[in-house]
Amino acid sequence: MQTSRIAIVGTGYVGLTTGACLASLGHQVVCIDNDESKIQMLRACSIPIFEDGLDSLVESGLSSGNLAFSTELISSVEGANFTFLCLPTPPNNDGTADLTTLFDVLHRLKGKFASGSIVINKSTVPVNSAGVVAQILAQEVAVVSNPEFLREGSAVHDFLHPDRILIGCDDLSAGEKVAALYSSLNCPIMFTDPLSAESVKYLANAFLAMKISFVNQSALFCDAVGSNVLEVMRGLSFDPRIGSMFLNPGPGWGGSCFPKDTRALTGMASASGEPMSLVTEATATNEKHIHRSAQLIIEAAQNNEASNVKVAILGLSFKADTDDTRESPALRILQIIQDNYENVVAYDPQAKVQNGVVNKRVNTMDEALLGADVVAILTEWDEFRNLDPIHARNLMRGNVIVDLRYLLNKEVFCDSGFSVRAFGI
Ligand code: UDX
User: Fold this and answer.
1) Of 45, 86, 257, 414, which is the active-site residue?
2) Phi, psi of 84 (to 5 degrees)
3) Are residues 230 and 378 in the same domain?
4) Based on C-alpha coordinates, what's the Rg of the chain?
5) Which of 187, 221, 385, 421 sits in a 20 to 30 Å window from 401, CA-based?
6) At what angle are helices 277-302 and 258-272 packed, to 10 degrees?
7) How far is the CA of 108 from the centre of ligand 1 (A)?
8) Final residue in a domain of this structure, among 175, 192, 209
9) Distance between CA atoms of residues 421 and 425, nearest Å
10) How many C-beta neighbours within 10 Å does residue 199 have?
11) Is 31 a catalytic residue?
């Protein structure tokens, strides 16, 4: 494989993972960010996010010399054959993506690219952004759309073992050069036009979000008719047309992508004259589900006869194996519970939460369980999955567990004197 010189602009979760992984594939990578303290930290191999395997990749990249960190945008890009744009595109109030940072960077870089170099857009950007970027750069370089499909918590694994690599390009020779960067990875590479590549990213996330909304709504249906949602989903999973992944009921979907991307997609769809009502409905179903989940915990607390009922919330991140709490259903549910009850404690092994959001956060699961009347599991951390019923029974005052991640063996817990609640079990 040929070694390429790559500049990655933006060292957020996508940029940093992309940079560290491309360096591990043997390329010369410089990751750029305007946050001086972050770059200092990264140079010292201190990783600002909790992401399995990322620290060791950064460490080996730094020691092999394949990976460097810099605040020097222009000189780094001038020396590169490939520039990946991994910049934040946060939602505006109306849900559309805010492209200010992307455009600022492009205006600064205009005229600075090495001849023949290629700009690659990895950020999730509105359909037609590759065209807009090419226009800003006045055709100075080829622009390729190469959306990322990384999941937080398994981003390194997903990068190194992708389902597919998607390359949207008008100039096939530029697309093939980008594909060559990944030549040591074993997966299908799909070449398409930039508009289609950009659409895939939004529609893939919307499809997955709809799938989870469907599963969560099915849990309510199963609850109403007396069937078991876990058995029902197992029954569905054998059909390859449905697939076995993303069939886990939960407290609702969240994170940095699904809420933002579904909002942006429904906005784009409406503006195009073809509203995507299924996606709008999936979002509304998700909102309702987050509230129904909170209500289930409140009902459990209301039915408790203890004085000053203690509710213990297990899990704050939007899913396991990440410290990310952006648009986390767990955090939203916690806030609803805190608005209704005073004696609420929360525990999460990693979640990063702004000061003032959690009234009382404890450092261990045992502290959370101690004297609790109602325990609610909102994130699927292994630590919660491995909860020992006897141990929990000895620590708790009450016996109710609202298991909104469906982690516990209900029969075993019921045999130990617990009442385990969730929709459809
Ligand atoms: C998602 C996409 O999966 C990824 O391809 C894209 O690049 C970014 O957005 P991520 O946000 O990291 O990744 O998380 P993901 O694992 O997809 O989960 C999203 C949400 O759905 C989480 O709140 C999770 O708890 C929930 N979920 C997922 C379920 O409730 N049930 C499931 O079966 C799967």
Assistant:
1) 257
2) -90, 130
3) yes
4) 23
5) 221
6) 140
7) 34
8) 192
9) 7
10) 19
11) no
Which residue blocks in 161-303 are alpha helix, DSSP H?
Answer: 172-181, 194-225, 229-237, 258-272, 277-302
Q: Is 257 in the pocket of ligand 1 (CB under 6 A)?
A: yes
Counting from 1 in the atom list of ligand 1, the atom nearest the Cα of 254 is 23
Q: Distance from the CA of 319 to the center of ligand 1, in angstroms?
A: 8
Residue pLDDT, tens place only, 352-371 = 999 999 999 999 999 999 99
Span from the CA of 378 to the centroid of ligand 1 (angstroms): 14
Co-location of 228 and 100 in the same domain = no
Distance 249 CA to ligand 1 centre (A): 12
Q: What is the SS3 string spanning 176-212?
A: HHHHHHCCCCCCCEEEECHHHHHHHHHHHHHHHHHHH
What pLDDT score was predicted for residue 2? 73
pLDDT of 344-354, one tens digit each?
Answer: 999 999 999 99
Q: Do 205 and 163 share a structural domain?
A: no
Question: Where in the sequence is the domain holding 413, given as residue range(s)?
Answer: 193-425
Q: Are 329 and 313 in contact (CB under 8 A)?
A: no
Q: Do residue 273 and residue 394 come from a single domain?
A: yes
Q: Among 152, 253, 290, 317, which residue has the most ligand 1 atoms within 8 Å of its CB, making it the best to mutate?
A: 253
Quick one: tokens of 24? 């591990």
Atom of ligand 1 nearest to the CA of 256: 11
Residue nearest (by alpha carbon) to ligand 1 atom 20:
253
Ligand 1 atom 13: residue of nearest CA: 151
Answer whether 252 contacts ligand 1 (Cβ < 6 A).
Answer: no
How many other β-carbons are positioned within 10 Å of the β-carbon of residue 162?
A: 18
Matching residue, tokens 């109306």:
94
What CATH number has the domain bearing residue 314? 3.40.50.720
pLDDT value for 1 = 67
Query: Are 251 and 228 found together in one domain?
Result: yes
| Residue of the CA atom closest to atom 33 of ligand 1 | 246
Phi, psi of 159 (to 5 degrees): -65, -40
- pLDDT tens-place string over residues 31-53: 999 999 999 999 999 999 999 99
Residues of the chain with pLDDT under 50: none
| 171 and 225 fall within a common domain | no
Ligand 1 site, residue 315, Cβ cutoff 6 A:
no
pTM above 0.70, yes or no: yes
